[in-house]
Amino acid sequence: MEKQPFSYYSPQMQGSGSSENGFGAQNNTYLRSTEYGNPFDDQATSAAGMDGSQNYRNLNQHGSPNRQPVTNMFADKEGNMDMYAQKAAAHGTAGGTGGEGNVHKGNHEHIEDLEITKTRRCWVLFTWMLTWWVPSPLLSLCGRMRRPDVRMAWREKVAICVLIVLSWVFLLFLIIGLGLILCPKEYVWTLDDVSGRNTEKSSFVALRGSVYDITDFMKQKHGDSAYSSTPDIMLQFYAGQDVNASFPIPVRVACPQFVSEKTDPNYLFYYPVQGASEDADPNQANMFQHAMNRDPLSKELQDPNFFAKYALPTLKKFKKGGIVWKYDWINSMYKDQAKYWRVINKEVFNMQPYFDAAKSQLNTNKKYNLLDGRLEGIMDQSGFGNADITKEYEALSWDPATKLANYNCMKNLFYVGEVDDRQSVRCLFTNYMLLAFACVLMLVVLVKFLAALQFGNKKRPVPPSKFVICQVPCYTEDDDSLIKTVNSLTALEYQDNHKLLFIICDGNIIGSGNDKPTPRIVLDILGVDPEYDPPGRDYLAIAEGSRRHNIGK
Fold it and tell me: Of 415, 408, 418, whose CA–CA distance to 370 is shortest?
């Protein structure tokens, strides 16, 4: 009895057991027609009693490629199957790879259902979560995607594109957004920055923790006839300077809870107290002091709230940002020079004028000790500890009203800016992260560069007496390219009887500019008879279900 051909994949079976949700076995079905016998049984006969050629012709009617019938690839000369074929035959008889098993339709169809893995189910669910807004009827009508598997493939491609876009957004967030969240952008200046702006084209001043651009302001007319100010005077004594001394605030206005009308009826109590502070800036002596009763002809200066009512509203439109101080410098002022610079919740206070007056001989009856004694105690530590007293300040047990009164008094009189944290780890985290990524990339490039270098003597090939296999994959190359490749292999130093040329043609394809398929070109180059058409050979690839069956020549 003649050998029976191997079973073939049937295109008519597409759609059997398929499902739009991607869990079906649409592409995992293949036909094993009992009409052509068991594909693993070399002794089986056809159900219709046909010979091998008839089986082959009938098989072509089912859509199989036109080729010569071949024998069972798993049978030996006596027709006995090896162990793998026996297992495969038993597997086909028992049915399935899990799940519901094999399903028989009629007398000629044999469908194998493959088990859907958990990973596949999760991916399909995730795909539908990303593409649920595109209905299947829309894809069928507008997208001309009639088959469920094509629609599912489209959804998976869209899901992959969405993942790519999300990864881009995540990277942009790490590079740009994360830095702004960890360290929001602030317009801040140091005193060194301010001191560098002292020209007619750019003039800045620092005033009570803020920076103002007075370039246009100093060109305007301000002040009365007795104390009028000119651009030259402001450029000489104000531009690039700290002008706190020019705008003193009466202590009675700044600390109303601690200074009464009886104590200071004329609003003449200011810090720094004259005769108590010794390290005042000499340049401040040339600045006009906008103090109470300094100019009897000025109605504005007769108002104790001159700074809040007139100065700040005028300067507000010229504000550029805030003043910042490096904490190391503040701490050195406190520890090394015993200056009363303190930090509370990142706010910097210059308490030197206060303690100069409090510890001077002018402080009779402790009239200059305005603040709470407990607050003075944690500030006056003679250089012990650190300049930052936030923990000690928060640990003080006092009522909210007293705490607020002391804080407002310090803020109105002695506040000079904020701590500069632009160089902190929090603000430089994204820079460090990008630097780490750059170092990794440079390391990869360096390793690949070193790996490409050839140290020592040039490597010699394997001795010509060894057996070698020269594998050449080709796809759509033309005659000249293939001839050059084959000639280069034949010119190798290896002996011809020890050298095997293994040329693989991937598909029966006619390349651009060619007049015949690539396999035929290779056969012509090797001198094979043009009339010879080698038979197709069945083999099982490493795959699942119907994808395992392949044909090669």
Answer: 408
CA–CA dist 179, 428 (Å, integer) = 8
Say what angle helices 479-490 and 518-525 make with each other, to 10 degrees: 40
Cα-only R_g, the chain: 46
Distance separating alpha carbons of residues 355 and 368, to the nearest angstrom: 9
Is 42 within 8 Å of 75 (Cβ atoms)? yes
Distances in whole angstroms, Cα of residue 13 to Cα of each of 27, 36, 44, 371, 546: 9, 17, 24, 92, 11
Q: Please give the Cα distance from 458 to 231 (Å, whole number).
A: 79
Q: Which residues contact 214 (CB under 8 A, 6 or more apart)?
A: 203, 204, 205, 234, 238, 239, 318
Pairing assessment for the beta strands 415-419 and 537-540 based on DSSP bridges:
unpaired
Q: Is the pTM of this model over 0.85?
A: no
pLDDT in tens, 109-149: 455 566 888 999 999 999 999 999 999 999 988 888 989 99
* Gap between the Cα atoms of 253 and 486, Å rounded: 99
Give the rounded percent of residues in the chain with a pLDDT score beyond 90: 29
Domain covering 188-419, topology: Flavocytochrome B2; Chain A, domain 1 (3.10.120)
Give the distance from CA 383 to its chain's centroid: 46
What confidence tens digit (pLDDT) does each residue in 333-359 have? Answer: 888 888 899 999 999 999 999 999 998
Separation in Å, CA 437 to CA 171, 174, 177, 180? 12, 12, 17, 19
**For 351-355, 453-457, 480-484, 549-553, which range has the lowest pLDDT when averaged over its residues?**
453-457
Q: Are 26 and 17 a contacting pair, CB within 8 Å?
A: yes
From residue 550, alpha-carbon distances to 54, 71, 545 in Å are: 22, 15, 12
Tokens at 130, concatenated: 């990303």
Tokens of 248: 């003193």
Domain boundaries, the chain: 11-116, 136-182, 188-419, 424-453, 468-552
Q: Which two tokens stand for residue 370?
A: 């305005």
